[in-house]
Amino acid sequence: MAAIGPFLARALSQDTIDKLVGMGRSKLEETRAEALSRHDYLTAVLTRFRIDLEDAEQERILLRSLK
What is the pTM of this model? Predict the structure, then answer.
């Protein structure tokens, strides 16, 4: 995971990363659709990943750490 951080920092601006982290589901889906229409596949993959993480947490497949 640590190796991904520098890659993302080069590929996406900090502002974009902050927006992805703080978005609600509907906004994530909207952002993903816009990214796909612009052929911005990195943003599309990251937004889908965030949606999948939230779904897994909601279905109790993954549990959020208390730390």
Answer: 0.62
